[in-house]
Amino acid sequence: MQPVFVILGATAVGKTDLSLDLAELIDGEIINADSMQLYRGMDIGTAKLPIEQRRGIPHHMLDVLAVTEMANVSDYQIAGRKVIQDIHDRGKRAIVVGGSGLFIQSLLEDLQFPPGDAQVRARLEQECEELGLATLYKRLMDFDPEAGAKVNPANARRVIRALEVIEVTGQAPVTSLQALPEVVPSIRVGLRRERPELDQRISQRIDLMWKQGLVAEVTHLASQGLRDGVTARKALGYAQVLAALDGEYPMTEAPERTMIATRQFARRQDSWFGRDSAIIWRDANSLTADDVAGLQA
User: Fold this and answer.
1) Where is coiled-coil annotated (predicted)?
2) What pLDDT is recorded for position 165?
């Protein structure tokens, strides 16, 4: 199998334009690796590229979930690998693009998932609603402090998944942040910008989101069950607008809160990707598609 090109990096760093240029250059097709772009209707807040701006290049793993469904890494791994194989079977090149580190790792490496149980998960989700996330996280820490320390206490999906694995298997999930054996050969290219520049790009993106109608988009999705979506409702921008709609603070504060949360998220992305020694880091201001294509030589 020819290696898959991977264009990764923090939000707003400039992955999209480079991936389009590369796809045109090498006859490639793009596979989304942004967990929130999996959702139908979540377009403005995820900076999902409109169809008319995709230059006729096929894009995969977009708009595959309803906002009420959970973005599951295991399901993504299975579906994404099938897409990669299909692209290569047609003589094209696969280009994975996104900033969701675990989703990218699941595609490329031998990341295996313990069994789950939909009924247990549904009950835990209900308990999270009724008792609060802090209560569930304490339950996880009480069972295995080491495993709990590896889970972000603010990430409901991860906390619920850890407790689900504990109930199904009797053991805490093994969370390895180290590189695993590669299943899909890849050329991983990471984009970087100086922090002040990236922060400015994030601010500009959020300004554009509001001008494009993010509040109206969230309002519509709320009528479609967004508040019931364990993962979708936590998305940057969407969570802040929902909170404002629910009266937690004025809507005028939502853009600033979104900007702060997005900048914090970009730093967490950098931290995640910084552990991957296979990534070839380049300056986003100067890297071209020809440069990326040349890395396969």
Assistant:
1) none
2) 85
